[in-house]
Amino acid sequence: MRRLTYASVCSGIEAVSVAWKDLDLKPLWFSEIEPFPCAVLAHHYPNIPNYGDMTTLPERILSGEIEAPDILVGGTPCQAFSVAGLRKSLDDERGNLTLVFVRILNAINTIRRRYGLPDAVVLWENVPGVLSTRDNAFGCFLAALLGESKELVPTRGRWTGAGIVRSAQREIAWRILDAQYFGIPQRRRRVFLVAGNRDRRVAQILFEQPGESRNFEQGRKKEEETTAFIESSFGTYRKSDVGGTVKRTGGALSGGSETLVVNIGATLSTGFGGRGVDSDQICNGNCVINYPKVRKLTPIECERLQGFPDNYTRIPWRNKPAEQCPDTPRYMAIGNSMAVPVMRWIGSRVCEV
C-alpha cells in the first residue's frame, strides 16, 4: 500500500510534519508567506516545496502545476476569531482565508475525481472563538465544505464543542481538544475539524467511540431545507474521553542554568502577555512567576510547551548563524503554531481509520 500524502496551508513552522514524522504519511508541499516561518521550513524541509500565497493555489492545482494530496491540513489565521483579534470574523481578510481553504479543497477534489480517486480528507484547526462569532462563521464554513448554498445554523442557537454534520455524500466532525491532556504543561484549547467522503468514516478520527455519552439532535438551516443534518454534542468531554493520551501532570522545562518544574500554564501567545493559573510556580502566558520573581520564558521553553524539539526554531536568519538567531521571531512563530502531541494523536488516528 502506498503512503498517504498530505499538504498544508498556513503551514507556519510545520507542527504537523514534526508530529507526523514517524507515521506513514508523506508531505507533498507547504504554503506559507511569513519570512521567518518560511526560513524554518527551508531549513528543516529543503526538499519540500513551499508554494507561498495560498490564494494562488486553486488555479495552480487545477492547472496541474501542484499535486493534489490525499489529506489537506490547515490552521487558517485565528486572529479574526479570537478576542485578541477583535473578532471581526469573516469581515477580516484573515478570516476569509478559511473560505479560500475551501476553494483549495475543491480544486484538489476536482483533480482527484478526474483520476478516479476519493476526495481528500480535510484536517482544520482554529481557536474555539470560531464557534461563537456573530456572523456564524463556523456555519458558513460547514456549509462550504458540504457544498451547500446557505449557512448551517446550530440547533440550539450556538455551536457546541463537539459534533458531527452529515450530508448524503459528506461527513464532517469537530471537537475541542486541550493540549494539557496530551502530555505538555500548557492549556491550549483548539477546535479540530475533519471532513471527507461519508464512506471514509472520518468522524472516527476524532471520536474513538462514536455516539457514546453524547446527546445528538438533528438541525436544519433556517428557512431552507437541506440534505445535511447536524449531530451536535451538548455534553462536556473529559480528558478520559481521549484514550491513550497522557494524563495532565504538569512538566519540567529547562531554563538556562535552572530546571523549572511547572504546573499547567496558560496558552502561549506570540508575545509576552497572558493570564496565569493559581499556583506557586506557573507559566503565565509567556512569563514564569516564581513568587516574588517574574521572568520571561526562553524560546526553548516555549518550544517544549508546544512539543517541538529543542532549538527547532533556532536557525540561520538574515545572514547570521543559528547561534545569533533573535528571540522575537521565534516567540511569534512558536505561539502561532499547533501543539505537536495533539497533532501526533490525530495523525495516528488518520492512519488507523
Kindly list the characteristics that best describe this protein.
353 residues, alpha+beta, Rossmann fold, 2 domains, three-stranded antiparallel sheet, globular
Give a brief outline of the structure.
The chain has helices at residues 15-19, 35-44, 57-62, 93-114, 137-146, 203-206, 299-306, 327-335, 340-352, and strands at 4-9, 25-29, 71-74, 121-126, 162-166, 170-178, 189-197, 229-233, 251-255, 258-262, 281-284, 287-290, 293-296.
Description:
This protein has 353 residues and is α+β, with helices and mostly antiparallel strands. The strands form 3 sheets. An 8-stranded mixed sheet has the order 2-1-3-4-7-6-5-8, with helices on both faces. Strands 11-12-13 form a 3-stranded antiparallel sheet, with no helix packed on it. A two-stranded antiparallel sheet has the order 9-10. The chain is globular. Helix 4 packs parallel to helix 5 and helix 7 runs parallel beside helix 8. Helices cover 25% and strands 20% of the residues.
Give a topology summary:
Layout: E1 4-9, H1 15-19, E2 25-29, H2 35-44, H3 57-62, E3 71-74, H4 93-114, E4 121-126, H5 137-146, E5 162-166, E6 170-178, E7 189-197, H6 203-206, E8 229-233, E9 251-255, E10 258-262, E11 281-284, E12 287-290, E13 293-296, H7 299-306, H8 327-335, H9 340-352
Helix pairs in contact: 4-5, 7-8
